[in-house]
User: Fold these one by one.
Assistant:
Number 1:
Amino acid sequence: MAQNVSMIGINANELRWIRTLVQLLRHPDPSVPELTRQALLYMAEAAGRAAVPPAPSPSRTSADAMDSAG
């Protein structure tokens, strides 16, 4: 009998994707787990880039702003 384990951050509707991912990582053909691993690394890197807002372009430095203010 399978036991359910709760994990913080995983919704019940995401379990299907987790199961698929585990199946791919355990696949007997060694190229499938390696490709899965590379895809996960790519997605994690892309998600990290998307989560960080781009820095504003420095049109004026803080020193310039101080000079013009006073």
Note: The chain has a mean pLDDT of 80.
Number 2:
Amino acid sequence: MVKVFFFIIAGIIALSMVLATSYFWTSQTVYITPESGEPVAVADVMYDVEFVRIHDGTKEVKPEGVFFQISITAVNMRDEPTNLSGGQFILVDGNGITHIAQFLDTGPDELWYEKIEHGVAVTRTTQFDIKYDKDEQYQIIVKPLKEQKTNEWGKVCVKNCG
């Protein structure tokens, strides 16, 4: 009777280890890193991310450092519409510090949140408040939205690559 109980407990432990390992590997973030200057596909959306300029903000909004502006062209390759949000983009500086996108409401090209239809390309800009060092490398992480259901993230070098 003790042997049967031991085998049942050992089976439960082994099964829980298999399930935990499976969950661990399926929930790990996978970074897709294209060659410098190349677009990256995340959740069936192709993103072309490029550095635009450094600027000091608007009359209403001034950065603590400077604004590092990027341009994003997104093409929806999914069969159904998807969304594009400024919260999908994170800047990583040369020290590994992450910065979130800032919405300045500078015009119609400013990225906030919008729907993209199948096959349509949308180009928007956003910026990050950073302490800029002209010699540091800067990368953009492209996160999928929850609705896109993937663990793949893009990582694109946009300044001082190589």
Note: The helical segments are 2-27.
